[in-house]
Design goal:
The chain is an alpha+beta fold. 35% of the residues lie in helices and 11% in strands. The chain folds into three domains: 57 residues, no CATH class; 76 residues, Phosphorylase Kinase, domain 1, CATH 3.30.200; 210 residues, Orthogonal Bundle (Transferase(Phosphotransferase), domain 1), CATH 1.10.510. The strands form two sheets. A five-stranded antiparallel sheet has the order 1-2-3-5-4, with helices on one face. The two termini are 30 Å apart.
Amino acid sequence: MSDNLLTPCSTAAVKATDASITPGEASKCAKAEEEIIRKKASSFEDYQQACMQFVARLTASTSGTSPQVNAGATVSNDQITETDSKIGRYVNAQHHADGIYSEIFKAQSPDGGRIVALKVTNPSAMNAPHDSIKEARILTAVEGPRIIELIETFRQAGDRFILVLPFYSLNLADLLDRGPPPKTVQRSILHDLFAALAHIHSSGIIHRDVKPSNILLASPTGPAYIADFGIAWSPNDPSSEPHDKKIIDVGTTCYRPPELLFGSENYGTKLDMWAAGCVAAQVVCLGAKTLFHAGDLGSELALIRSVFMTLGTPDLVVWPEAADLPDWGKMNFTKYPGKTWDAILQGIRQQAKDVVSLLVMYESSRRLGANETLQLDFFQS
């Protein structure tokens, strides 16, 4: 969730070197050092190691010990600034981020000091498919490895409903800002993503918003956890729409599959697999750049054009299910020939291309499921 890897860990270390410095000044010092490290680093590994060495030097200067840095060291999620703010029984609450219908606060449990994320929502102000009470029910139902843990929920005055979750200082979008991670990290993170999807899909649950910022990381090398079930669909939840009348205004623009763009209300779990394939493209090759683009305004037509220009304009031979889509055939599109996957994802192994190409395809029934994806050679090597 943080803007960089160094600042959350080193702000406290900078503060420890000078008791008179304010938290804000310590944060500025940490950010300045991080910017220097970022410019000098020739790779993500260099950047990560330099960050850890800086923190170790600061720690050693206050403790009198020699710095020792583990090459696999990770950013700590247990640093928090003391404040007078409380939310429920949680102390040291501080604003961390905003969602469409929520505010995220970082806070600390008074018993044991665990650092948590408090997702503060107002259910009465939410529009479907956003539903934090449903989100809590689904998280309880899908509890398992690589799914964000729901620690508890509670209510407060003003119709506030709060979900208590583990706090992770990093998400996959943050990591991808530095480019594709090392190959071993690619495999680890994507394995966790598809394992999580296999788990929820086995119950018929569709996440409906798979994207890098909803994949939280315990460290820059993982493990990864899929989060934000605020618009998820479950066949067993009373607040979910009928299976053949699902809401189509779901997902984040560049990760929305073509069946949504052409009005399908009867989509299934393969919707998540298209989005996961788009995420995989970034992890193995593209970094922060998305596979498809929707223009500055997030236009669906711009996204359709981007998909068609990349994969080729489909016909009913390539995409048979399009014949039953409500909005298919309403417009005439330019016939683009499409590109090869070698041209789309340049300079990477065929095994990595397969993770993308076998998911990012028009016909949803032909996309691999999550369990099938985990059997690909990419995850065996």
